[in-house]
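User: what does the whole thing look like in 3D?
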Amino acid sequence: MRLALPLAGLALALAGCAPATRVILLPQSDGQASAVQVQSGQSTTTLNQAYDSAVLHTAQALQTEQLSPQAVNRRYSDLLAAAPLPPRRFVLHFELGETQLTADSMNELTEVLFAANLRPGGEIVVIGHTDRVGTQVANDFLSRQRAAAIRELLIANGFDPRRVDAVGRGEREPLIPTEDNVPEPRNRRAEILVR
Amino acid sequence: MLSSRFTPLRIAGAACLLLASQAMAQGAEPAPAPETEAAAQVAVTPGDGRHGTFKTVQGDVTVVRGSVHVAAVVGDPLHATDRVLTGGQSTAAMVLKDGTVLSVGPDSVLDLSEFSFDSTTHEGNVLVALARGSLRMVTGLIAKLKPEQVRVTTPTTVIGVRGTDFIVEQRP
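Assistant: Here's the predicted 3D structure for the full assembly of 367 residues, as structure tokens:
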């Protein structure tokens, strides 16, 4: 990631005449391209490189400049330190042709509860998925009901109902893409997000 | 069989649906009509309709909801139209329902002006207003589907995103 270089010669870009507004693009954790567009009055600028910065001084047009990662990390150290833990994902499977979870998946649920209880303000999102057999509406309902049943199980085991959600994604996110109405047991699953 | 490392799960109530229900045999039969599905309806324990949750709170952090000021605590909810105030050397981070991360720096005033999210379709919108201080936003599922649905404003600027991680600082 970012190199820890000495702080000598710290960029003065962040000191001196303080701008009214500053926007800084950070690198994306997955390395994907990203951009922000900043608009002020009549002027607009797009930032698309990590550490590009748009600066607005009072009664002036928008300017852009490139900052050093070290200067950004130093100035915004408190803000950047406030970041929450990244989410964890689990996948649960159902017994073939049924709404019953496999034994391994039931074990995974204890792991889910453990992981969520470890986190400050931890939340659980249960996301049901189906294959493409049946209508989209029926699959939305089915996936939602399966997720809701797992959610009730988590609540019955002491988890705060205000911090666990049940979501039905229907057939929208197959693991294995298929034609419509083709059975695919590997797509019939519940994904669990702990964040 | 449950792992001996963990307290075994207690199976109760509607959760029995997972273990005792008949095969809904998806893939083995034509999909049942909605009326048949209704027989398997799970009784749902309600949540609190929140739009986000506090994950980190450092120092003096207050949520203003209407005219009520509440000291923020990790695990507390955030709702659209709430205002978050941070004091000196104080920070907070919240995660919204679509996974958007909002970190708030010291001496800040941040409004979650608008938030809507359909967890099935990922449609929604996020409007955040930073009156002063600093914000770091990491966008989530709403921006992934439609980046134009996510906006941050300051008194002087409007910021649009393209699936991003960025900082905004606003001097008072």
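In plain terms: The CA atoms of residues 11 and 29 of chain B lie 29 Å apart. Confidence is low (pLDDT under 50) at residues 1-8, 10-17, 19-39 of chain B.
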